[in-house]
Amino acid sequence: MICELCFHRCNLYEGQTSFCWARTCRDGKIVPLNYGKVASLALDPIEKKPLRRFHPGSKILSVGSFGCNLRCPFCQNHEISMSGDGELETAEVSPEVLADKALELRPYGNIGVAYTYNEPLIGYEYVRDCTALVRERGMVNVLVTNGTIEEAPWRELLPLIDAANIDLKGFTPEWYGRLGGDLETVKRSIVLAAERCHVEVTTLLIPNENDSEGEIRNLARWLASIDQSIPLHLSRFFSRYRMLDKPPTPVERVYRLADVARGYLSFVYTGNC
Ligand code: SF4
Questions:
Q1: Model confidence pLDDT, tens digit, residues 151-161
Q2: DSSP-assigned states of every residue in the chain
Q3: 213 pLDDT more than 90
């Protein structure tokens, strides 16, 4: 059976685990393995997602599971994103329990639920079921995603999403290829999301990989062609996972690239500087 959720289009035989570790084929159907299996749950400041222009100063109940459909060697969350079923401790949290928890936390500044930490869209069914219940309770849904999803499921989910932070990990097909991703897919996800909800974009700047002025100029110019008020977060890289040999992005480099992006975009933020 073919999973049609992302461009990898895994062809899974009965019981086989997918590329993203979060899906399998059971009784001839593609099913999620991480439905309701929560690896991380925390009440975070919305700025930590990062979202800077969506309910600033509020908090959001943030939930994550395991698995990812990319293979970034610099993954900042690899403990959960590069794990499969049974490889880390999870708690069963049904959509009802999650939505009720979000409501319970409203007096503490919570505005809803953020699907984050690992790639939430590979657990599509859980996100879809939770977002409907959270919306019913009058709260918001936030996605923090790599944007690697096919068009049909993305269009179906977007009406339930209030805000998204989408990673744009660079602006060349070659770089995306090295991450196991597809630049055009992510661009399409950003365009479609910007039509339906509040969108902010994050780029992690990896020294000598995706941090040339030309690349960031092209990225910022393209974002501005959608809407120049889309906030762009340029984040500083720190050695992680399989990129332990690289030094952190020099702070001056991050500031310089932010200035380049400001030539096109109204809101450019620097992170981890
Ligand atoms: S979502 Fe996972 S299982 Fe489905 S195609 Fe993508 S990598 Fe494969």
A1: 999 999 999 99
A2: -B--SSTT--B--BTPBPTTSSEEEETTEEEES-TTEESEEEEEEGGGTT-SSSSTT-EEEEEE-S--S---TT-TTHHHHT--TTSS--EE--HHHHHHHHHHTGGGTEEEEEE-SS-GGGGHHHHHHHHHHHHHTT-EEEEEE-----HHHHHHHGGG-SEEEEE---S-HHHHHHTT--HHHHHHHHHHHHHHSEEEEEEEE-TTTT--HHHHHHHHHHHHHH-TTS-EEEEE----TT-TTSPPPPHHHHHHHHHHHHTT-S-EEEE--
A3: yes
Atom 2 in ligand 1: which residue has the minimum CA distance?
20
pTM, 2 dp: 0.97
C-alpha 27 – ligand 1 centre gap (Å): 18
- CA–centroid distance, 116 to ligand 1, in Å, is 17
